[in-house]
Design brief:
Length: 223
């Protein structure tokens, strides 16, 4: 890291764990030249992915988790594992760190006969969302995704912080810094709004009936 990177004010948006990534000392007191908005992957939030998948697949026993270990956006799989265990689900983690691994990984999921899948959000998976959605459809694998755009791309279900709202809120950081406030004195903020997207067209293709309780909770239902 050069001197300019350590001194020029910088604002980040949609980072999963800025403390763990070494960007700030703490959320309340960043302590350096960086601050911004995190994705706030708290245990409660991670539990939502598991809860929603279980509501969709009440007979599920084993679920998979697609995770890029090199990302700074996604949280550790352990939080999802704990949430799954709490409701009687066994979690199997499938790692992928480059796009060439997707087909092999989904083929392995099929061999393992998992009941459903959670796709963790990060730059790699979001960049290849159409491909991932296609592979999930090919393997007929009910999947919940960690970014709303997956649902709009044909994914069965997605639950995530409202990312466009995070970028809008980042403008207030720019304004404060331009007026003289130091990044070290601006606490890292967390999401305040979340999105649940359900794709009924994909559900029909998989032969699934979405519970009415989930449809009523959804922010967007794609017909």
């Amino acid at each position: 890291m050069n001197a300019g990177t350590r001194t020029i004010p910088a604002i980040f948006v949609a980072i999963g764990d800025p403390v763990g990534a070494g960007l700030v000392a703490s959320l309340g007191h960043p302590g350096g030249n960086m601050t911004g908005l995190s994705m706030a992957f708290t245990p409660e939030f991670l539990g939502k992915w598991v809860e929603l998948l279980k509501k969709l697949l009440p007979r599920a026993r084993r679920v998979g988790l697609l995770w890029n270990p090199r990302t700074v956006i996604s949280p550790s799989p352990e939080g999802v594992r704990d949430a799954a265990k709490a409701i009687g689900l066994q979690l199997e983690v499938f790692t992928v760190s480059k796009s060439e691994e997707f087909e092999v990984t989904f083929a392995e999921m099929s061999k393992r006969r998992i009941d459903g899948l959670i796709v963790m959000p990060d730059v790699l998976t979001v960049s290849h969302r159409n491909r991932i959605v296609g592979l999930a459809a090919k393997e007929r694998l009910p999947t919940i995704y960690g970014f709303a755009d997956f649902g709009r791309a044909g994914g069965l279900m997605a639950y995530s912080p409202n990312v466009p709202d995070l970028f809008r809120r980042a403008a207030s950081y720019v304004d404060k810094i331009l007026k003289g406030t130091k990044p070290a004195d601006l606490p890292v903020e967390q999401p305040t709004t979340f999105e649940l997207v359900i794709n009924l067209k994909t559900a029909r293709a998989l032969g699934l009936t979405i519970p009415q309780s989930l449809i009523l909770r959804a922010d967007q239902v794609i017909e």
